[in-house]
Amino acid sequence: MTDVLIRKAGTSGRITLNRPDALNAATYEMCLKIEAAFDRWQDDPEVSCIVIDAEGTRAFCAGGDIAQLYETGRAGNFAYGQRFWADEYRLNAKIFNYPKPVVSFLQGFTMGGGVGIGCHGSHRVVGESSQIAMPECGIGLIPDVGGSLMLALAPGRLGEYLGTTCYRMDAADAIYAGFADTFIPEAHWPEIIETLETGGSPDILTDYAKAPGDAALQGQQDVINSFFGGDRLADILTLLRQSDDPFAIATLKAMARNAPLSMAATVEVLHRLRGPSISIAKALDLEYRFTSRAMEHGDLLEGIRAAIIDKDRTPSWQFADQNVPVIAVSKMLMPLKENALHLEGKQMAQTTVAVIGLGNMGAPMASNLAQAGMNVVGYDAAGTTAQGVRSAHSAVEAVRGADVVLTMLPNGAILRAVADDIIPEMKTGALFLDCSTVDVESARHVAAQAAEHGLGFVDAPVSGGIGGAAAGTLTFMAGGTVVDFETASPLFEIMGQKAVHCGDPGAGQAAKICNNMILGATMIATCEAFALADKLGLDRQKMFDVVSTSSGYSWSMNAYCPAPGVGPQSPADNDYTPGFAAELMLKDLGLSQQAAEAVDADTPMGELALELYRQFVEEENGTGKDFSAMLPRLAARGRS
């Protein structure tokens, strides 16, 4: 029996999945045959639309056939899976971008790989039996086959909820979430397909459409948004664990079954996708970064074993306590260099990038760009170099012919001086990408200078410290035009985990200044609280357990705890060796107060934080220590 029936019927190209006993699970060979049919029919004048359906009543397609993936992966052959995913994703992109109508009829289960075949077309029909889901986190993958795109486009934070819980949507839910378009009772499907085969337009679907009923997800939208609005999996879990709401309890139970690394990466992928640069190509690229590593470095083999092979439903996941380090997610989502997924769209591999400033931050950023396959040339006045980066003898030499010039410099005065030298030598149309943390006026001055010479400009200071620069997990706060931000976005994806377009030139610096003023003040408050707890006889771990899940929750407490041996690993556990040095915090707080004075803003907490860090750095040997070393300073002092 043929697994997929492919034929022309009248004016339609017809594809029928034909493995009803296996819930029409898609094999590698089926995907290749379907892709070949799409290719044949694209320019065939006799084919006006594509119609996809499936045999049986239980499923349109319950996913990909993963048995072969398990066998090859267990044997150490990871290339088979990588080739399968690459070819499958190419098919998903073709369906999404197909120039002719693609009408799919989605009865029963449509999950995983079935979503990739059935939910990217122009007309997606669901009925009474339809159940649609992205269950990949349950076997150690992330929502893929382009499903991450639909999750990122779903209302509010529904994408995070659907992706991490593997929730099954009925017809009304699927239409609300954007996975389907039209509800039509299944008894009418055969006559509709016959009409399409005899030249009827897909517009006839509206004649049969019925109201699908109320979407349960729509009724839960507000509560989902309230729990799933955090930046990371840890934030979501913290909010859920704080609540005794029945929804939170049920959601935690559902998430407990799934692979923590997969859930954390799912949240990260959705956050990276959202924004003006969202596309099917970007979604598939991020998905492939994870799936191509999933057998060797992830939990896929263990997930398949527990669910399909041994069926014991007791997988042994990595990070079973659900505390997934940011670096673990970053490693799964790092660019694949020469092994990257190749789809239609912008390719950055041949981009030439000049990096000026190869210090503690600039050097690893430049290396990550080089490792991703870009042609990177660097220069630093101190003579430092970076791995994989070709060295130039001067900044002027470095920037000649470069498509992008990235600067990472100590202050605004140096940025202005370097800009004076290099802007006249940059080629017209190149992008000047400044990742330094400088004053707003310097950023705007250089932006205007760049514009006069026909250059793009983005100011994009970073958050994440030296560790984030090395791991490729930085956050970029960017100011510039939408066009220039889009040009810089592929570099942001390589060097970081998130980039936010904050507005016009200078807005990135403004966002960084405001962010670090909050950080400086909250770190002092966190350190003060630990010092007070010590003198009240309160155990530091007990205080952390309370505050980290209560209203005192903050990044300074939960992610970067200043108390050694408490909370996640932080510089406090390494004798306050800097992740973000106290003198850099002093610099940023100084910039915040300079900006506040310029616009007549009242910032008393920022002003006080600046003075405390000034004392710490300049008078109390705080230089060379992490900014969280304010804790031992405060713990050793009495009330004066």
Topology, please?
Elements: E1 4-9, E2 12-17, H1 28-42, E3 49-54, E4 59-61, H2 67-74, H3 78-96, E5 102-106, E6 109-111, H4 113-118, E7 123-126, E8 131-133, H5 147-153, H6 158-165, H7 171-177, E9 182-183, H8 189-197, H9 205-208, H10 216-219, H11 221-227, H12 233-242, H13 246-255, H14 260-273, H15 280-291, H16 300-309, H17 326-333, E10 352-356, H18 362-371, E11 375-379, E12 390-391, H19 395-399, E13 404-407, H20 412-422, E14 431-434, H21 440-452, E15 456-459, E16 462-463, H22 465-471, E17 474-479, H23 482-495, E18 496-503, H24 507-536, H25 540-547, H26 555-558, H27 582-598, H28 604-619, H29 630-635
Question: How would you portray this structure in words?
Answer:
- This protein starts with a strand and ends in a 5-residue tail after the last helix.
- It is of the alpha/beta class.
- A 6-stranded mixed sheet has the order 1-2-3-5-7-9, sandwiched between helices.
- Helix 2 (67-74) packs across helix 16 (300-309).
- The protein contains 29 helices and 18 strands.
